């Protein structure tokens, strides 16, 4: 029997609006954790990714010689350190979300690592609510072409892998979100999500989408006069409005395409059509819950295409691994050369230090000799002075 605690797993492909959606969850009072990945040039308003989870996902993928852009398949349950990684993840959740009844975890890498994360939350007795955020596959591909210089084919395969990963790991998707519609009608989308999951804004953190002191006083009065639920409703509406005004910016959509346009013939035309058809089927259920088997007819052609290209996908990843290895080898060679140069310089420094030390010793000896000679000269001077004084006294006497 589950504990009643819930984790909202924000899933979907990179460059699909998962950051904007997760920021919206934060506005609704969902705990995102304190340690978040900061903004970057390609995501100016922030990623809203829990930094420790992001680092763990990177480590998991790297242990398979994979990274966020790998497209070949792999079975994470076969990893020899599977239990070790599970332990790390469980301790992280217990440490960073110790008492949260509802919290969210967002990282597009999770879509490729779902068997791992599902097991983490099963052992913690936490209900997993998968949320699939979707963006037009060609818009994603064009965005990645600009940022990473990826081919359209590669990006579409990645989009397919991430989408199929969600559908294959859950019998039901409680919520599907169309990113373009979120941008067009953010307040409507977030309000529907609040109602569907019974979220309380008062339970969240006062932060980017919190209320001012005056607003908090007004909301408190409203809650006292008309009930706590109404007070929370007012607070939620204020936060959602703030989110829509300050965060959502249609100009930040990195690439826009018309999916209704005819797909030209070419090497990736079947893949483009398959991804387009699946996207259209999925987004029919925008802000709805739906059984994964609903999309079997749209999924089958993509699964076939990926199966046909499995050897190609594996070869691509193998070449990437080899390239990374060569890069590492080159770095190791360069590092060894630098270390050798440093050793030579250190030897020269030691030699110069020895020379300086020798000269210092010679100079010290010279100084001692000079001082001794000076003392001897002074002593002789005094002796001669006394001698001549004695002679002068004798002369005067006679």
Task: List key phrases describing it.
13 helices; Rossmann fold; single chain; 4-stranded parallel β-sheet; two-stranded antiparallel sheet; 6 strands; 2 domains; alpha/beta; 398 residues
Summarize the structure.
The chain is an alpha/beta fold and 398 residues long. The protein has 13 helices and six strands. Helices cover 62% and strands 7% of the residues.
Overview of this structure, please?
Mean pLDDT is 82; it is low at 204-208, 210-227 and 259-263. With 398 residues, the protein is α/β, with parallel strands linked by helices. The protein has helices at residues 18-27, 51-63, 82-96, 114-123, 137-148, 152-169, 179-184, 186-197, 213-226, 228-246, 269-283, 296-308, 310-397, and strands spanning 6-11, 102-106, 127-134, 172-173, 175-178, 290-291. The chain starts with 5 loop residues before the first strand and ends with a helix. The protein has two domains: 6-308, Rossmann fold (3-Layer(aba) Sandwich), CATH 3.40.50; 317-398. It is built from 13 helices and six strands. The radius of gyration is 36 Å and the shape is elongated.
